[in-house]
Amino acid sequence: MMGLVVAEVRKLTSVVTTWVLTGLGMLLVVLGSALFLFLTEFGVGEFLGTDPQVAFVADQVGGANIIVVIVALLSMTTEFRHGTIGRTLQITPGRTRLLVAKLVGGTIYALGFLVLGLAVGAILLAIAAAVNAVGLEIGGQTLTSIWQGAVGLTLTAWFGVALGALLRSQVVAITLTLVWSFVVEPAFGGLLPAVGKWLPFNALNAVFVGDEAVAAMGEMGPQMLDPLVGLSVFIGYGVVAAVAAVWLLRTRDV
Questions:
Q1: Which H helix or E strand runs over 100?
Q2: Which one, of 161, 119, 182, 176, lies nearest residue 248 by Cα?
Q3: H or E segment at 97?
Q4: Comparing C-alpha atoms, which of 66, 83, 88 is closest to residue 185?
Q5: Residue ranges per domain, the chain?
Q6: 49: left (phi over 0), alpha (psi -120 to 50) or beta
Q7: Would you put residue 134 in left (φ > 0), alpha (ψ -120 to 50) or beta?
Q8: 55-78 pLDDT, tens per residue?
């Protein structure tokens, strides 16, 4: 199994697309954090380096979860797009083992994405602290944001791998994911908020919306689940997708 995991990680890190998407994810972290830290009209008053403000920056990493979903999708659908799935299964006949290896590889990428994003956020926080001549408080809210980010991004990677195994077509999988994430769920969130907040990515995003973000959005912000409820809901979606992916991968021809 370890060899399979190493091979999956090597596949991810040897593809230029992975690095391009990761760079785009870091850009999203920078933009989200910088707007809050340096432009007071987007933030909540003056930056004082408080624990909730630091936690907000940490949440920006998890907020870029769409990047992790796409990379995870690619790790699975690329096998079908380029016809390498047959060769892969010749080397590793156990289809469930292959899927587990891809899930573990996705986990490693998700945690690496989190660490890199936190490093980028730390640099921005250090700059903001120096500009405002304040210290940084790292307390319970920041630590909660970090562990929720680790769990949320890991589950996001698993969901992406499972979705890729279900849909197989790379173009269809990515298109549907983007349309669902940026069109369908926001539409439900605006028109039927009581329903929209229970949809997969809206539920997941509730994990990464802290007190500072809620205050910044005010009453015009979307309805969100409690973070732990949102996490539980997304776990449910992930479990269903993973079970379906295992079953179909074991029963369908490649």
A1: helix 95-132
A2: 161
A3: helix 95-132
A4: 66
A5: 2-251
A6: left
A7: beta
A8: 888 989 988 889 999 999 988 888
